[in-house]
Structures are given as structure tokens and as C-alpha cells.
Amino acid sequence: MKREQIRKIEGVIALSLSTFSAFLGLFWLVFILGDVLVHGIAALNLSLFVNDPAPVGVSGGGLRNAFVGQLMITLFATLIGVPVGVLGGTFLAEYARGTTIAKVISILSDIMVSVPSIVIGTFIYAIMVKPLGHFSGWAGAVALSIIMIPVVLRTTEGMLALVSWDLREAAFALGAPYYKVIIQVVYRGAATGILTGILLSIARVAGETAPLLFTSFNNSFFSLDMNHSMSSLTATIFQYAMGPYAIWHTQAWAASLVITVFILFLTILGRIIIKWRYK
Amino acid sequence: MAVTFKKNPGDIIFSFITAIAACTVVFFIIGILFVLIKESSLSREKFGIVQFLTSTAWNPVTGTFGALTTIYGTFVTTVLSLLMAIPVALGIAIFVTEIAPNFLKGPIGIAIELLAAIPSIIYGMWGLFTLSPLMRNYIEPVLQKATAGIPLINVLFQGTPMGIDILTASIILSIMIIPFTASIARDSFNLTPAVVKESAYALGATKWEVVKDVVIPYSKLGVFGGILFSLGRAIGETMAVAFVLGNNHKIFTSLFDTAATITVTLANEFTEADKDIYLSSLFYLALVLFMMSFIFLAIAKIFLLKAERRYSR
Fold this sequence. Notes:
The complex is a heterodimer.
Chain A: H1 2-43, H2 46-50, H3 64-95, H4 100-114, H5 117-132, H6 137-162, H7 165-173, H8 178-206, H9 210-213, H10 233-242, H11 246-277
Chain B: H1 9-39, H2 41-47, H3 49-54, E1 58-59, E2 64-65, H4 68-99, H5 102-117, H6 120-147, H7 153-156, H8 166-190, H9 194-202, H10 207-218, H11 220-236, H12 239-242, H13 262-269, H14 276-311
Antiparallel strand pairs in B: 1-2
Helix pairs in contact in B: 1-14, 2-14, 4-8, 4-11, 5-8, 6-8, 8-11, 9-10, 11-14, 13-14
């Protein structure tokens, strides 16, 4: 009788602790997001988006350079990373399906996804910044694309594998060569999934800071020239938050809000699409 | 399943292009390793391997560099954050798989995923502006008072609580890695066949006993892999700790000390390195970091694959 009670009490304690930890996780999410929202919304205003940084003490400065720089670096990273990732995923799921080389590349990609992003920054610094003698937007875009490629590659591989083999056989039976089957049948079947993977990979790299610190660096002036150092929201947040001025801190909160909302929006959108398409 | 297609020229071209795209990942890994080894050669020749890894000197003025302080900082923050994150992450995984009513499973799962999606720089800034004052004003003085009389333990909480220290950095890091560990643990728990659990229930086991004696033993390979994976990530995390660690190269004993990790050193000093030997030593640090995280991630991946193979039969 007594032993049973102990078992029951033990169970109740353990399960309450695990319930508590789940709510602790929720608590952190609400705490962090709430904090970013409260500080960020208070700091948001129009001049943030249309003006370039003003000298400290002059009011009305904004972060237009950082918004535009962030967009350009992310856009070019996507333009480089997505085709390579999708084509690579195609190789693994189609031509190399089931082979050892496909398995090895999949495993290496999974590892690459989690390799410290700051190491990728030092790599790009050595091969692009040092030889050219200056920081550049291109270096930042390439650094981000290196992070993006394994993400896109793995999701594409997974999504193509979901397309049923019968569909391909039906196309083969009509005499289509494999590459046409892939492009016209398989890609079409997996389009939503691949698109979701791309969205999530953009969300993954848009918040990256470490690889940009020594590649695109930072720039307090508005610039569209990818050949020179370029401002980005994340590098600006780092600089402003560590800086001594209250106005910098306020603007860093605003920038954090914008980037967090953007990334969470992409993440949730990706989730919804997956749920809707692959239920 | 194997497809043998001869000879359509379109296929030869397309398979070649896709193969090259797939191999970029391999090129990157080899490229990173090669470039870091090459760039660090100056430092490697001057300091060697053993001396670099065991020396606490980090003096840009005299040009003597050793990695021990940063490796120590990385090690302590990583271990501390894992100690704090693992129980919570396992609790979350147990809650989501075994306890939560269906209407709560979805929202909690999404919340965990959102926590993982928040960029690390946001964690870092939140840590600097929100968590650090809380630590300095409330939590750290209390910890100090509570441990004041206890020998050995009070050493850990010595010094003026500043909020910019190892403890704050480790807490931020632990919040960041909770979602990774939790989602891998959840996936591993879910691999436990319902039949096995039901058999345990039929023998009269309580829910906790099922979790403790059936689910966790069954999924321990996967959970272990998940923990190693989080370890690999925590080692390489930069922005979350860069704000609150202080980048101070020394061997500390108190958790209220400032410190430096490999990543924080790189982030703060890379663009300031004015001498070749300085930059080369930073590349050397990057090489050490890359190898450490790669090895941990690779071992983690092997465990996860093993777990998957065992249970998917």
C-alpha cells in the first residue's frame, strides 16, 4: 500500500516538473518576444526606414542603409544559394538515389548546417576579402549562401523523395528522358515543398550576424555597391547595442523587431504551407 | 529502384550539373579546412600545436598567443549551458509526447520551434539589456548570499555581480539550445512503439514509470545524439554570448568573472588584428573551433543515424 503511494507521488512530482519545464520554455519565448515587441514598437517610426544614420545628437536619423544592405545581401545570397542547393538536392534524390555518395553528402550537409557560422566568415575573409583588399557586399552574400546551400539541399532532397516513384515511371513510359521527367514532373510535384524549404532557409540566414562581421562589415552610409563594405541590420544591431548612446540602443531594438518579425513570419508561413500541403 | 539511363545527352549534362552542385558541400568543408590550415601556418610554426593549446598567453602587443583561455571559456560556458538546458529540454519532450492533451501539443511544439528560429543576435541583445540587469540586481546577489558560507562553492560566486559574466552568458546559451535538444529528444521519444508502452501500462506502471523505464531507455541513443548535437552548436554560438561575456582572456574561477570564448574572441578581434601573427593566430583559433564542432557534430550524427536505423525496423 505504502509503496504504491510512493510510486504515485513520485509520478506526480516528475510529471509536474516536466510540465513546469514546458511552461518555462513558453515563458522564455514570451519574455524575449515580448521584450523585443515592447522596446521595438516604441522605437519604430517612419524616419527609421527613409533616413540614413545621422550623427549622434542630430535627431531624425534612420537605418535605411542597413535595411537596404540587408535586403541586397540576403537577396544575392538566395540567388546564389537556392539554385545550387536545389540542383544538389536533385542529384542526391534522383541520379544518386540510394547510393553511398548520396548518403555521405547528406550527412556532411547536416553537419555543415550546424558548423559555427563565424568560421564561415573567417573562410570567406581569407578567400575573398584578403585577396581583394577590402570588405564587400558580395563576400557577405557568399558567406550567407554557404550557410544556405546545405539547408536547401537537404529539404529539396527530402521533398523530391516524397514524390511517388510511380509518377516517374508513368513519365518514363511515355518515353521521356530522366532530366525531362525531373524538370517537368518531379519538380512540379515537389514545388510547394521546395518553396517552403527556400523560405525557411531565408529565415535561417537573414538573422545571421557572425559571418557578416568580417565579410560585408558595416557601412554608415547608404550604398548599393556590392563591391564595397555594406551595412546590414544584424551587424548594425551588434554595433549599436554595444555602443554608448541611448539613441543607438533604441534603434537597435527597432531593427531587432523588424528582423524578428520578418523571420518569425517566414517560419510560420513555412509551417502553415507544410501543414496544408502534406497533411 | 536503380535507374539506368543511357545516353540521352540531356541527362549526361543535367546529371553532371546536379552532381557538381551536390559536391559543393564537400568542397566547402575541404576548402574551409584547407584555407584555415594555410592561413594559420605562421602561428602554427611559431607556437606549435601543444604550446598553442596549453598556453594562457594572449598578448597582441608582444605577439604571443595561446588558446587555453578561450578554450577554457568555451568549455565552461558550453558545459554550464548544457547542464541547465538538458533537464528542461527533456522535460519539454516528455510533456509534448506523453502528458500534453492534444490541443496543447501543437502550440507548445510551435512555441519551441519559434524559440529556435529567433536569431542569436536577438538573444544576445536581450541578454545585454534585459537579463543582465536582472542578474546583476537580483539573482546574482542572492546566489552570492546563499553560498557565502559554503566552502568551495562560494568560490564560484565570488566578486562583484556585474551581470556581464559567465553565468549570464551560459543562461542565454542554455535558452538558445533548449529547442534543439527538445525537438531531437521529442523525435526520439516518438520512435518508441506504442505497443511497448501499452504493455508497460498493462503491467500497472504509472505514466512516469513508463517514461523512465520504457521510453527513455528505448530512445537513449537518439537523446544522446541530440545532446551531442546541441553541444556542437553551443560551442560555435557567437552572437548570443558576444554581448555579455566581456572578452577577457584569463582563467577564471568565479562565475561572476568576465571571460572569452573562441567565437567571442574571433568576433571582437578579427577586424582589429593589425599584425600577421595576430591574424594568423585568430585563424588558428578558428581552425580549432571548426575541428572541435565538426567532430562533435559528426559523432552526434552517427548516434542519431544508429538510433534511426535501430528503431525504424
